């Protein structure tokens, strides 16, 4: 008997028992759909997060007071608060001494302000960043209208501002904002530029901030924030080439340790992060969810496999006389074995395919409610179908062996 004939007979057997086959498929579909659905949802969010986190680009990293991965314990939090803040002098030392870097900027942030022009106000989610002229290049957010802040603006502490695209759209819908005044936190600035629009799937935080010269920011808000803590400068460092980013990071580390008086046996009192650091941290955080979904899916597949084995054993009993007739006509045990194995594998993979399609659909539901890019992780579909085949072979083997070992005469006498 040819393999094709065996496959055709297996499919015919599955078709002739539609209800039983459908009930068997339910477990497989749910198992595969749970794995694919969660993995697809994570892939959708992960793709968007990686896009959002790539704000620094492939050549830029940042030195800051706070740990890049947040706080894992109260002790880590206390240790971070004890660190001395980074300063403009630290940024200047990096600018002067790190040979692997070509652009070094400094920025200080504060949040929760209102911007106003001609009686029109924004809500209270406006951020103010005091920065240096390197800000647009190091944050891949460029000025589309007007000009960037200059070194002269910084030296003279001019009250000028480059505003976000959303702020310009709201406050200056019908006029050119360049040269006009804007009030932020009740203080007047001259608008000299507008950033390009930079959409975000998590809101428009990239378009709702105001960039002022860092010296202007410090003159107004000082070195202490509203909670009474000393402000710390974020130092953005652009390596000359992507290949030099780790060399530039190590050079910066040595410079900062020296100027901040860190002894050789003490750990750094600052931290670095880059787009790659943020992406790695996000992947670490989602690893537990991936493992959990995989384990739940495997358990569901095993339960479904037990159901398949039980149904296949019933099928062998029901078709005992058929097996006897086939053996008496010359069918070899391996043909019988192959037929029952193929039935189990085909059944599992039909359920697997339905589960994959359902999982992709469920995982991409989030894209209808947020500005996320859809994702179809083919590698997980392949993994799911491979596991389905393994379940079919593993749990279909015992019934198949039982069927292949039936004696023809005993099988023909079976009632």
Q: What would your notes on this structure say?
A:
The protein is of the alpha+beta class. It has two domains: 3-52 and 281-413, no CATH class; 84-269, no CATH class. It contains 14 helices and twelve strands. Strands 1, 2, 3, 4, 5, 6, 7, 8, 9, 10, 11 and 12 form a twelve-stranded mixed beta sheet that branches. Helix 2 runs antiparallel to helix 13 (378-404), helix 4 (88-97) packs across helix 9 and helix 10 runs parallel beside helix 13 (378-404).
- Residue stretches low in confidence (pLDDT < 50, at least 5 long) are none
Span between N and C termini?
27 Å
Mean pLDDT across all residues, rounded? 83
Largest sheet: 12 strands, mixed
Decide which structural class fits the backbone.
alpha+beta
Q: How many beta-strand segments? A: 12
Q: How many domains, as an integer?
A: 2
Helix content: 40-55%
Q: Figure out the total of helices.
A: 14
Order of helices and strands: HHEHHEEEEHEHEHEEEHEHEHHHHH
Q: Give the DSSP E fraction (strand runs of 2 or more residues).
A: 15-25%
Q: Note the overall shape.
A: elongated
Please compute the radius of gyration using only Cα atoms: 32 Å
Quick synopsis:
The chain is built from 14 helices and 12 strands.
Write the layout of secondary structure elements.
Blueprint: H1 3-16, H2 18-53, E1 60-64, H3 74-82, H4 88-97, E2 101-113, E3 115-117, E4 120-121, E5 126-131, H5 135-138, E6 143-146, H6 151-156, E7 160-163, H7 165-171, E8 181-184, E9 187-195, E10 209-213, H8 214-221, E11 234-239, H9 245-259, E12 271-274, H10 275-318, H11 320-328, H12 333-363, H13 378-404, H14 408-413
Parallel strand pairs: 5-10, 7-9
Antiparallel strand pairs: 1-11, 1-12, 2-5, 2-11, 3-4, 3-8, 6-9, 7-10, 8-9
